[in-house]
Amino acid sequence: MKIAIEIFSMIIGVTLACILFASIINSSNQDSRAKDYYNVVVNRIEDSNCNDQIINECVNDAKKNGYDLSVKDVTIYEDQPSKYITLTYYVDFAVFSLFGSGYEKQAMIEGYAR
To answer: Per DSSP, what are the bridge partners of residue 72?
Structure first.
């Protein structure tokens, strides 16, 4: 009987550890996807030489993908346009939803397109 209780408690512990690790991996994947999306947006804006139409397309596309993208003009010299780009997104921790309430944390990526 003692062995059965030990094995059962080990199975419960391993299951909880797997759920926790899966939640950590999921949040890391969300972060990674946001960073990749941010890099794509910065490259599009830089390749278009900070074209306003492309910037508006990127902002609308970000809303469709669940991100909040803000682009501010920080140009000093007219011949060298520069934009300050901020991507705001939410990281969801799925392990907390097992206990009745989800937990989201706001994250932000900031940088320049020149």
So the answer is: 84
